[in-house]
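Contributing new complexes? Match this layout with 2'-deoxycytidine-5'-monophosphate.
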Amino acid sequence: MGLDKSYYLWCFITILMERKLIITIDGPSGAGKSTLSRLLAEKLNYTYIDSGALYRAVALKVKQSGVDPDDDASLCRLCNTLILSFQQDKGRLTVMLDGREVTDAIRAPEISLLASRVSSRKVVRDALLGVQRRLGDGGGIVVEGRDMGTVVFPAAEVKFFLDASLEARGRRRCDQYRAQGKTYALGAVTRDMEKRDSDDTQRALSPLKPADGAFIIDSTDMSIEDVVEEMLKAVERYLSPSSKLNNRGR
Ligand code: DC
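Output block (do not edit by hand):
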């Protein structure tokens, strides 16, 4: 009697829950990292971590407190007094900053640009490195960002680099805004995205690039379901007894 598909899936998820892997998803803005990380984490019963939300929270606090985003001493003080927490409920991530909910406020276009700007400062990256590693303590996480596989979790077991054309990413971001009841012109959204990607890719510290050994997925013409399936297959391949990577220590 052959084993049925649901039994096979159950075995796969049980192994994953026991192994508590670190799965990283890096890539430019609008490539679908958040949706896919959340879905993958849900399917594997792992915790989803959005590292970009940390940089966005710093940016929002910089704006609220009137700190000069190029003044390292003030940025350092600000990062050290940041009180941040995340809550996940049915796939929705709630972000609290200094006791107030900022889930939507950190997604505003001006905060996106400011987040990219503060993320190029060494003091900010240094302050957030420990926070991110503590969030990932013990594994069993799907974590998304720009340098998850290259710098923050270089020993992660499975790494992805998710990309898509600028046009597709701009359209997706506009759809997301529309779903939140906000309307922004496609041209302006695409221009902001192009600037941010170019800054994130060209900065000296932790630039956006695929990690060694990352699976590169171009999602331009793929559905979300297809990408999740491809990611699950990559995780399965990693876990297969014949995988050379499988017994690598973290
Ligand atoms: O993923 P996001 O769009 O929410 O990220 C906002 C900005 O934060 C992005 O432009 C670059 C920065 N960022 C980073 O430098 N490193 C990360 N790991 C995540 C985000």
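Reviewers usually confirm one structural detail per submission. For this one: The CA atoms of residues 163 and 218 lie 5 Å apart.
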